[in-house]
Specification:
Number of domains of chain A: 1
Number of strands of chain B: 0
Helix content of chain B: over 70%
Protein name (chain B): Hydrogenase
Number of helices of chain A: 7
Number of strands of chain A: 0
Radius of gyration of chain A: 18 Å
Keywords (chain B): Cell membrane, Membrane, Oxidoreductase, Transmembrane, Transmembrane helix
Order of helices and strands of chain A: HHHHHHH
Oligomer: heterodimer
Largest interface: A-B, 40 and 46 residues
Order of helices and strands of chain B: HHHHHHHHHHHHHHHHHHHH
Domain NADH:quinone oxidoreductase/Mrp antiporter transmembrane (chain B): 112-398
Radius of gyration of chain B: 21 Å
Strand content of chain A: under 5%
InterPro entries (chain B): ComplexI-like_HydComp, NADH_UbQ_OxRdtase, ND/Mrp_TM
Structural class of chain A: mainly alpha
Subcellular location (chain B): Cell membrane; Membrane
């Protein structure tokens, strides 16, 4: 059972690299969506069946694999943009940094004092690595949509860590967090749409009128 | 009864969405905020016991924040009626609905005793503020909105990770897993120290960025500068309190564990750094709304310093939270009026406001004196108590730096405010429609009256409430 979970987690890690290394936005969105679905199936593998867990599984898959990607793809279509151009941190450096962070995550996680039932699981290193990759994308890209994707990767990392707590967290909290995430992406999508109308671009480095001189 | 605090504004939001007419829709705001104020007052007098599962309760800390927020929101909603009548061309459906949803979310922050629920409500306040900051629909406001959304979302995501760490520390320590505040405080000392430590740091960074503590304050000047004055007042006086309350919950857990002193040390440092940042950026600020944002950074810094000092300063810190939100209300509302009257917020064009808008300018001047800690206004009392507590504890460096920064900030702020209020009106000014009128002057005037009264006399029930709240934080007061 757990070996399957570990394989899915490795896949999650690979998806991080796919996002770090590509300039195509629609592809990145799909990657993050697939990662969301993988994330959603994990609780079913790690925890015994219960209504609580099945609710979490269904809602995560629905929100992260369905609704959020649809919202972002729509924003991409409206802004008429396909690629990220000249990011602050290039693709090759991003990949190298991503690899560095991933290996650091493994070293770091091995030293963490985990509960006995969680020893040897890949969840913690995968969560840390995904979180860091999210940060990299968030900091390293210019386009507003890429930044949203970075934020989503980060959230995925946090949710991965949350898996350790799945039977400890009340359903309401999980559902509320997901709802907040969904509304957040919705609002960001609208803002992106307005940015592209106002500046005829969604390059956030153009948002510089408010710099302190 | 408790749920009325959350549901009533939501009902108002739905109603305001349904009203088709711009002019009539505005009236939904004062009706529901007055109702909310009445419910809050009733709850302050007769507090119901905690809900059976322990998720919902109004403790003294919550009461303080509820009081400040409800009063401020009522004043702002009364002001909104006057303000929006000048801006009827711009659709205000989203504004009215978002304001009420935001009131509902802030109330949920106040009454939740479950940290997960509190997090959800806090994130909801962040999201509802985004359309409010973007009310003016121009390039500058969209930039501010984007920065605000991104920084606050990431900050609050980090706080979620901190909460997960806190929950995990209970698992590792083989305790019953819970994010309920009473349980966490009870078990605080037994939690796994490593995870608990990490949790506190992440929570401090997360809630700190929402609160605008330096160096996590970078979104503040933009958001405060571009949002309408009314929204700025709620951001600086209301939302700051919610983020602070979240931080106070963490503080409660920290104080119950062995981490208390370290947490306090970090808060003290961040507080002083915030004041230093404010002192530097306040000088030569040519946009008076941005200047107010730095003033907000300063005052969350002051509160953080008070929390860092602990003991007797906690009482003063909590009092300062209330004083700050009331005074910030006056500042933002009156400067919103001046902004309308000149159609500019640059000190280059805005001069001699005392001639164009005598009431608003006088209020702006009075609130400036109040916020910089001049007697007889309320912030003087709380700032004085904090300084005297710092020296009383023998912490001369903190006390000295605190006074130095206050002095620098006074000079910096005066060099912007005084020309705006007193200077000569520039000859070739744009003609504008706005002049002082009762609906936009009376609400901030009432608030200023409150600031003055609180500076001269703190009612006994409020004093008792402040003492009770300080005791929850481990103060000896």
């Amino acid at each position: 059972m757990n070996s399957l979970a570990d394989q899915l987690l490795v896949l999650c890690l690979l998806i991080n690299f796919a996002v770090l290394g590509t300039s195509r936005l629609a592809f990145s969105v799909r990657c993050v969506a697939v990662q969301g679905v993988l994330l959603g199936t994990l609780p079913a593998l790690v925890h015994p069946f219960s209504w609580h867990v099945s609710f979490i599984v269904v809602s995560i898959i629905l929100v992260k694999g369905g609704l959020i990607p649809v919202l972002i793809i729509r924003a991409i279509k409206k802004a008429e943009i396909e690629r990220e151009f000249s990011p602050f941190i290039g693709y090759i450096p991003s990949l190298v940094l991503g690899a560095l962070f991933t290996s650091l995550a493994f070293i770091f996680a091995a030293r963490l004092p985990l509960a006995p039932e969680h020893e040897g699981l890949l969840i913690v290193p995968a969560a840390a690595a995904t979180l860091m990759s999210g940060f990299l994308v968030l900091m390293g890209r210019r386009k507003a949509i890429s930044q949203v994707l970075g934020y989503l990767l980060m959230e995925n990392g946090i949710f991965l860590f949350g898996l350790l707590l799945a039977d400890a967290m009340p359903v309401m909290v999980e559902a509320g967090a997901l709802l907040d995430l969904l509304v957040g992406i919705f609002v960001m999508g609208i803002v992106i749409n307005h940015i592209s109308r106002e500046f005829s671009s969604i390059d956030t480095s153009r948002l510089s009128a408010l710099r302190e001189d | 009864m408790m749920w009325a605090l959350v549901l009533l504004p939501l009902l108002g939001a739905a109603l305001s969405w349904l009203v088709p007419d711009n002019r009539r829709r505005v009236w939904v705001l004062p009706v529901f905020s007055l109702a909310h104020l009445a419910v809050s007052a009733a709850l302050l007098v007769h507090t119901p016991p905690p809900s059976p599962a322990g998720w919902i309760w109004l403790d003294p800390l919550g009461k303080l924040v509820l009081m400040a927020n409800s009063v401020l929101f009522t004043i702002c909603s009364l002001y909104a009626v006057g303000y929006l009548s000048y801006r009827l061309k711009r659709p205000n459906r989203v504004l009215c609905a978002s304001l009420l949803v935001c009131l509902s979310a802030t109330s949920l922050v106040v009454i939740s005793q479950h940290l997960g629920l509190l997090w959800i409500a806090l994130e909801a306040t962040t999201l509802t503020m985004a359309p409010l900051i973007y009310f003016n629909h121009n390039a500058r406001s969209i930039e501010a909105t984007w920065k605000y959304l991104l920084i606050c979302s990431v900050g609050i995501a980090i706080a979620l990770l901190g909460l997960f760490f806190l929950a995990y520390s209970t698992i590792v320590a083989q305790q019953e897993v819970s994010l309920l505040l009473p349980a966490l405080i009870r078990d605080a000392a037994a939690l796994h120290p490593g995870w608990r430590h990490a949790a506190f740091i992440f929570l401090l960074v997360g809630f700190g960025s929402k609160m605008g503590l330096a160096p996590l304050h970078t979104w503040k000047p933009d958001a405060y500068g571009e949002a309408p004055g009314l929204v700025g007042a709620l951001l600086a006086g209301g939302l700051v309190n919610c983020a602070l309350l979240a931080l106070l919950r963490v503080y409660q857990v920290a104080a119950a564990s062995t981490e208390g002193p370290l947490f306090q040390q970090v808060l003290l440092t961040m507080g002083l750094v915030s004041m230093a940042f404010a002192a530097v950026f306040m000088a030569r600020q040519s946009d008076f709304k941005r200047m107010l944002a730095y003033s907000s950074v300063e005052h969350v810094g002051i509160i953080a310093v008070a929390l860092g000092l602990g003991k007797g300063a906690l009482f003063a810190g909590l009092l300062h939270m209330i004083n700050n939100s009331l005074t910030k209300g006056v500042l933002f509302l009156s400067c919103g009026n001046i902004h309308r009257a000149y159609n500019s917020k640059s000190t280059q064009f805005v001069r001699g406001a005392l001639r164009r808008t005598p009431w608003s300018a006088a209020l702006f001047l009075a609130a400036f004196l109040a916020i910089t800690g001049s007697p007889p206004f309320a912030p003087f009392v709380s700032e004085f108590l904090i300084v005297s507590s710092a020296f009383g504890q023998g912490n001369h460096w903190t006390g000295g730096l605190f006074l130095l920064f206050l002095a620098l900030i006074f000079i910096g702020m005066a060099s912007t405010v005084l020309p705006v209020v007193l200077g000569e009106v520039p000859p070739d000014l744009e003609r504008t429609r706005y002049r002082d009128a009762v609906p936009t002057v009376l609400p901030p005037l009432a608030l200023m009256g409150l600031v003055l009264v609180l500076g001269l006399w703190i009612p006994t029930p409020l004093q008792e409430l402040l003492h009770e709240a300080a005791r929850l934080l481990g103060g000896e007061a």
